[in-house]
Amino acid sequence: LFNQIDLEKRNAALAATEFIHNGMTIGLGSGTTVYWMIEILGNLIKNGLEITGVPTSRKTEEWARKFAIPLISLAKVDEIHLTIDGANEVDGNLNLIKGGGGSLVREKIVGHFSHENIIIINQAKIHPELGSFPLPVEVVPFGWELTSKYIQRLGGRVVLRKKHHQIFVTDNGNYILDCQFGSLKNPGALHHELKLLPGVVETGLFVDLTDKLIIGKNDSVEIMENIIK
Length: 229
Ligand code: 5RP
Fold this sequence. Notes:
The protein is α/β, with parallel strands linked by helices. The protein contains six helices and 15 strands. The chain has helices spanning 4-17, 32-46, 58-66, 104-113, 144-153, 187-195; strands at 25-28, 52-55, 80-85, 89-90, 96-97, 114-122, 135-139, 157-160, 162-163, 166-167, 175-180, 200-203, 205-206, 212-216, 221-225. Helix 1 crosses helix 2 (32-46). It starts with a helix and ends with a strand. It binds ribulose-5-phosphate (5RP). The site of ribulose-5-phosphate (5RP) has 17 residues, from helix 2 and helix 4.
């Protein structure tokens, strides 16, 4: 039924749900790995688990409704106990590149507000240094060409994201620039440089956010804890 990658993603998702308990408010990340988590969570809820979810994208909201997960908007939430999200790339310090699906802004807002963040991935996403995956940067549409030039001056090769030959528009009405910087020695410094550029809303660098990384394998998982954070 599953291919190897889906199996790894699902195993990671299943392991993450063991950290969910009654009464929790859970940040629901975005992407195909999170899809498995939402499906499993739907089953747990059917069997009596009581939690509330905060979605990080329209797609996640749609999936959560499909599996009858009670939802609450961020505006009405007092605290988020735990957020479970995917990533496109993870380095040895558990820093992340996210935004492959274009949901980085809401993911970062929800993750930042959470007491704890668990990241679920398949094995191929772990690399000693970030940078194989082009870094998604969300920018406002106004003057995006100029913002792109600023980013190129910082050393990035920049491509405006398109989908079906149309400019890709985020849930927030913005554009995504996919930026290739090569191997990232200092992701935190790059994030700060990019954030200072006019027109940049947010970057896909998630530095010092991960508490636990769950790497899905064929028939097991590996859990890495961030002991520095
Ligand atoms: C979306 C994200 C996702 O977490 C990331 O793209 C991983 O997706 P998938 O689980 O489908 O590989 O950051 O903005």
